[in-house]
Design goal:
Keywords: Repeat. By secondary structure, this protein is mostly helical. It contains 5 helices and 3 strands, in the order βββααααα. Strand 1 (about 10-15) and strand 2 (about 15-20) form a beta hairpin. The radius of gyration is 20 Å and the shape is globular.
Length: about 160
């Protein structure tokens, strides 16, 4: 039994607070909800995507690459000038994968949106999205978080090593 078991809503000093559910919070940190970065987030209303009859060959090539389970390449890096249509292409691919039931995770960053440009939310966002699709993975992530409730405050490398 904790010596604070009957204590509710108090400050330990500085910026540490304990709420009525016995959760510890750093009062200076603001929780950033990374769901705004999801491909289908309402915060990204009317995101850019390819018109029906455009980039057909590129979309087909990427979808074939995604479907090729024997390919040694597991990462696609898309580069190009601003305004070239990278986000539209990625949005189109994410939607097609979601429609096909093969989308594991899609994250859309934005330098203009502070809820979508925080690197500290990348691992929990990936874990959340992947866990929604695979109950075994969800259970594994849940166990890891229960073992270390502060895992998502650690370095990204530690988070990835713990949840790999």
């Amino acid at each position: 039994m904790s010596i604070f078991s009957k204590a509710r809503n108090f400050n330990v000093g500085g910026n540490i607070q304990i709420d009525s559910s016995q959760h510890v919070h750093n009062a200076q940190e603001k929780s950033i909800d990374a769901s705004n970065a999801f491909y289908d987030s309402g915060a990204r209303f009317d995101p850019p995507k390819c018109d029906e009859d455009t980039r057909v060959e590129v979309i087909s090539e990427i979808m074939d690459w995604i479907g090729d389970r024997d390919s040694p390449k597991r990462l696609l890096c898309m580069t190009g000038a601003a305004g070239a249509g990278k986000s539209a292409l990625q949005q189109t691919i994410a939607e097609r994968c979601a429609d096909s039931g093969i989308l594991g995770c899609a994250i859309f960053f934005s330098s203009q949106d502070p809820t979508r440009n925080n690197l500290s939310r990348i691992v929990p966002t990936i874990g959340f999205q992947l866990g929604r699709h695979d109950p075994r993975l969800r259970d594994y992530i849940k166990e890891a978080v229960e073992e270390d409730p502060l895992i998502f405050t650690r370095t990204i490398r530690t988070q990835m090593d713990t949840l790999h």
